[in-house]
Amino acid sequence: MSLIPQLHRGPLSAVGHLWDDYEQLFSNRHGSSLRMYTPSFDIRETEDAYHLSGDLPGVRSQDLDIEFQDSHCLNIKGHTERDSTSNEGSWCVSERSVGDFRRVFNFPSAINQDEAHASLKDGVLSMTVPKTESTTTTKKIPVDT
Hints:
The chain has 145 residues and is mostly beta strands. It has a domain at 36-81 and 97-133: Sandwich (Immunoglobulin-like), CATH 2.60.40. The protein is built from one helix and eight strands, in the order αββββββββ. It has one helix spanning 13-30, and strands spanning 36-37, 41-45, 49-55, 64-68, 73-80, 99-106, 117-121, 124-130. The strands form two sheets. The chain has a four-stranded mixed β-sheet, with no helix packed on it. A hairpin with a 4-residue loop joins strand 4 (64-68) and strand 5.
C-alpha cells in the first residue's frame, strides 16, 4: 500500500484533479469542506416500530439535529470535524469522513413523533421510531364539468 496517490490517466482525470484542487483551496480558505458525506444506517422493522442504528464516529450529540418533516419522514443531519490541534506534518492519506452529513428516511407507515427517542453512544446513533395509525383519510374530489 502506497501513501502517495496514484496518477490516474484517463479522459476525465484532469477534471477530477481540478475539482480536488478547487476543494482543497476552498476548504483551506474558509475552514470547511465542500464535501458532504452519507453515514451508514441499518433499519430494522418490528410490528410496532422502526429501529435505526447509524455509524457516526466523532460526532457529538450537540452537533446532531434530528427532526420530523411530516408523519412519514425523518431528517438526521449534523457535522463532524477533524481534531486540528497539531500543526506538525501534512496529511498523506485522509479517509475518515469529516464535514456535514444528512440522511432522510421515508417510512411507509405513519410514525409517532412524540414517542420517538434517540441515543448516541460510542459513535453509534440508535433510534426507536414507533409506528402509529395514519390520521389521513381518503377523500374523493368531484370534477366539475
